[in-house]
Amino acid sequence: MKNTNATLILTEWNEFRNLDFDKYDELNGGKYFCDCRNIYNKQELTKKGFKTYR
Question: pTM to 2 decimals?
């Protein structure tokens, strides 16, 4: 997720269930986040500055 514009979650694999969003910010991850599996709370992502899509 380094130097990305957007992140899309398309799987329910456990590796993607507990992303470290502080580390994500350090890697300059994009602020567009599409959670197609409804793993993350949309309100929490919005609080962290993400523009969320489902």
Answer: 0.79
